[in-house]
């Protein structure tokens, strides 16, 4: 990520493996962590201007408008002892168009973490001493992220749309009976689709005006045409 008035960074991903879809791609070139899921963020910067930030790659190409926000996020990563650990990341970029989450080694080391890469193994050591294995897949390195398959969090509006525009009151009731369903925001909202679908057409019940007398001018035209035809 780069502020247009500041220094920029460059990185490139040349290979992605589907088996690592839920993991964090470890990148030594990125200057900031990147997440693709909004639900992982705990807060966003209020004054973040999307138009003033861009992504720059190693070949010099830039992409504007794809960074949708920046803030603090929490991810669950498996430590070397096999336990899931909740890790807080700061200044994380929210880029929903990216296919993989990216863990910046530079951003981590600036916070006191240490990364050790060896010919046969690699690890990340947090400032508190907790170690996380960095596994290699192909030519890329990954942190073992723990995917949360037990539940999914969405706002009330998002659950309303996911459930086929179900009644809002019924959607709220589903949270207590559906395992893993979480409503993160229950604020009122306006659904344009529901509003349009409930619109009805009105028809006038008044009869159309009908002529009560003969229009002499029309009769004159008809007579002239008939005479001409003869």
In short, what is this structure?
This protein is α+β, with helices and mostly antiparallel strands. Helices cover 19% and strands 30% of the residues.
How would you characterize the overall build of this protein?
With 230 residues, this protein is of the alpha+beta class. The protein has 2 domains: 2-13 and 27-143, Cathepsin D, subunit A, domain 1; 152-187, no CATH class. It contains 5 helices and 15 strands. It has a 6-stranded mixed sheet. Strands 3-8-7-4 form a 4-stranded mixed sheet, with no helix packed on it. The protein has a 3-stranded antiparallel sheet with strand order 1-5-6, with no helix packed on it. The radius of gyration is 31 Å and the shape is elongated. The relative contact order is 0.14. Residues 1-19 and 219-226 have low confidence and may be disordered.
Q: Topology of this protein?
A:
Layout: E1 2-3, E2 24-27, E3 34-35, E4 41-44, E5 53-56, E6 62-64, E7 69-78, E8 84-94, E9 101-104, H1 105-110, E10 114-117, E11 122-125, E12 131-137, E13 140-143, E14 152-154, H2 156-162, H3 168-177, E15 181-183, H4 192-197, H5 216-229
Parallel strand pairs: 2-9, 3-8, 14-15
Antiparallel strand pairs: 1-5, 2-13, 4-7, 5-6, 7-8, 10-11, 11-12, 12-13
SS content category: alpha+beta
**CATH class term of the largest domain:** Mainly Beta
- What general outline do the C-alpha atoms trace? elongated
Number-wise, the strands total: 15
Total domains: 2
């Amino acid at each position: 990520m780069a502020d247009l008035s500041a220094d920029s960074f460059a990185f490139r991903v040349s290979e992605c493996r589907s088996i690592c879809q839920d993991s964090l791609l470890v990148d030594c070139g990125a200057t900031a962590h990147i997440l693709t899921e909004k639900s992982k963020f705990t807060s966003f910067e209020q004054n973040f201007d999307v138009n003033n930030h861009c992504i720059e790659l190693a070949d010099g190409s830039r992409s504007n408008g794809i960074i949708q926000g920046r803030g603090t996020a929490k991810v669950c990563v498996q430590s070397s002892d096999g336990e899931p650990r909740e890790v807080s990341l700061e200044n994380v970029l929210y880029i929903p168009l990216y296919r993989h989450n990216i863990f910046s080694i530079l951003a981590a080391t600036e916070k006191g973490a240490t990364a050790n890469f060896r010919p046969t193994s690699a690890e990340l050591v947090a400032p508190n001493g907790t170690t996380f294995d960095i596994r290699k897949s192909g030519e890329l390195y990954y942190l073992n992220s723990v995917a949360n398959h037990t539940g999914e969090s969405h706002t009330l509006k998002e659950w309303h749309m996911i459930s086929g525009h179900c009644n809002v009151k019924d959607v709220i009731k589903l949270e207590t009976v559906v395992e893993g369903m979480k409503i993160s925001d229950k604020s009122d909202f306006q659904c344009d689709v529901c509003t349009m679908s409930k619109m009805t057409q009105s028809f006038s019940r008044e009869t159309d005006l009908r002529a009560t007398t003969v229009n002499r001018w029309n009769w004159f035209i008809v007579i002239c045409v008939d005479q001409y035809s003869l």
